[in-house]
Amino acid sequence: MLEKLVIEGGQPLSGTVRISGAKNSALPILASTLLSDKTNVIHNVPKLQDVHTIVKLLQLLGAEIIWEERTLTINCAQIKSVEAPYDLVRKMRASVLLLGPLLARAQRARISLPGGCAIGARPINLHLQALNRMGCDIKLVEGYVEAYSRKLVGNRIRLTIPTVTGTMNVVMAASLAAGTTIIDNAAREPEVVDLVNSLNQRGAKIHGAGSSQITIEGVDRLGGMNYTIMPDRIECGTYLTAAMLTGGSIRTEDIRSDSLQAVLDKLEASGAVITYGTSDDGQRPWLEIVAPNRPKAVDIVTQPFPGFPTDMQAQFLALLTIAAGNSVVTENIFENRFMHVSELQRMGARLQIRDNAVLVEGVEGLSGAPMMATDLRASASLVLAALAAKGSSEIRRIYHLDRGYERMDEKLRALGARIQRVRQ
Ligand code: EPZ
């Protein structure tokens, strides 16, 4: 059933929002359950379309899964298949994360090539080169990666790009390989650290996660985990930016500030007042933001972690369209991540694309318009712009949004937004 969002803009957000578990941590951690025949209990799993997709894929491969609220109990003792079919993989590129664990556990994998998506070609050549260096035969047959390895062997892997899922695939494959693997130029994202923490809890021997060099000593087998997914730093950044755009003041709970410091720095440079604290029992960190009357223009350059995350570029661009002054947003990670620009222009934003940058001329305000979502973060950008715009907006194809944001319309309504989800 196709649905759309109807938003009446101009309402400052206020209140407290609970941040869900991180999508880009849950997906690799769920894929990693293939590495062992023991039972895994995973908490704080976000209820997202992408999580449903990887659950379906794991069940196809033989996993027994019980999903209660936000806890998944998964046992992969029986691997019945090693094939991830195109019709599921095309819905979610992160299916490539099944490659490393299947090779390590079942010595073979047949994964449909994910194909491109709205934001770029999204090749997986670095994943395949790394696995090949670990003794894996790789063939590309009829749009599928067919991989076979009698036994993966540890090796020195230098990634020419610090690919996030590429790092995760190598870490998972190496955890059961013979010998030691060293990854140079590894991705440093917090979600890589979360995956590694969950692996080490199961008996893996991995050091250096969060730095550019990760060392993995292969072990014979892994146990089961009882693990809680980290909070979603991109979801948190999205709500903090929404508060900025609407001139509001909100508190986000369960988030560690060091996972999105680059975003917090830019919000403060744009005039936000951000305070930090923990709950009385000292367990739950919170962040509070108070927006200025009007945000100041700041330049954004996306980089691998700990730089400004590409997954926040579209949301922050929406903010800059109404900032006082001009700014430049430079996208260094993906080649086509400006799908939101034309829709923002229809709301009155003054934007010009120059190669991999957008030149922004801040305007006093935007006006609501009917819009079409294209990819996950572009959709979030349109929602944020609509919250700040004068008048009413409609956003269609919001299944893009549901892939990565849990109940976004409900969470925003609880913060005072005038937003309804209706049949298209
Ligand atoms: C992960 O994608 C995230 N997805 C993305 O989040 C995120 O935008 C991206 O990392 C960058 O932070 C998940 O974790 C599931 P990359 P990933 O490999 O791993 C090129 C979202 O919105 N590259 O780090 O696919 C690639 O084309 C999603 O939640 C190669 O050339 O990203 C890109 O230009 C979107 N060859 C750059 O590297 C390869 O083999 C970074 O890609 C791999 C990547």
Structure, described:
- The protein has 424 residues and is an alpha/beta fold.
- The chain folds into 2 domains: 3-20 and 231-423, UDP-n-acetylglucosamine1-carboxyvinyl-transferase, Chain (Alpha-beta prism); 23-228, UDP-n-acetylglucosamine1-carboxyvinyl-transferase, Chain.
- 30% of the residues lie in helices and 26% in strands.
- It has 14 helices and 24 strands.
- The chain has helices at 23-31, 49-61, 86-89, 99-106, 125-133, 164-174, 190-201, 233-245, 261-269, 313-320, 339-346, 376-388, 399-402, 408-414; strands spanning 3-8, 14-18, 39-43, 64-68, 71-75, 83-84, 108-112, 137-141, 144-148, 156-158, 180-184, 205-207, 213-217, 226-228, 249-253, 273-278, 285-290, 300-301, 326-330, 350-354, 357-361, 370-372, 392-396, 418-423.
- The strands form 6 sheets. The protein has a 4-stranded mixed beta sheet, with helices on one face. A 4-stranded mixed beta sheet has the order 2-15-17-16.
- A hairpin with a 2-residue loop joins β4 (64-68) and β5 (71-75).
- α11 (339-346) runs parallel beside α12 (376-388).
- The longest helix is centred in the N-terminal third of the chain and has 13 residues, at 49-61.
- It is globular.
- The mean pLDDT is 96.
- Ligand EPZ binds at residues 23-24, 27, 94, 120, 122-127, 161, 163-166, 310-311, 333-334, 376-377, 404.
TL;DR?
The chain is α/β, with parallel strands linked by helices. It has helices spanning 23-31, 49-61, 86-89, 99-106, 125-133, 164-174, 190-201, 233-245, 261-269, 313-320, 339-346, 376-388, 399-402, 408-414, and strands spanning 3-8, 14-18, 39-43, 64-68, 71-75, 83-84, 108-112, 137-141, 144-148, 156-158, 180-184, 205-207, 213-217, 226-228, 249-253, 273-278, 285-290, 300-301, 326-330, 350-354, 357-361, 370-372, 392-396, 418-423.
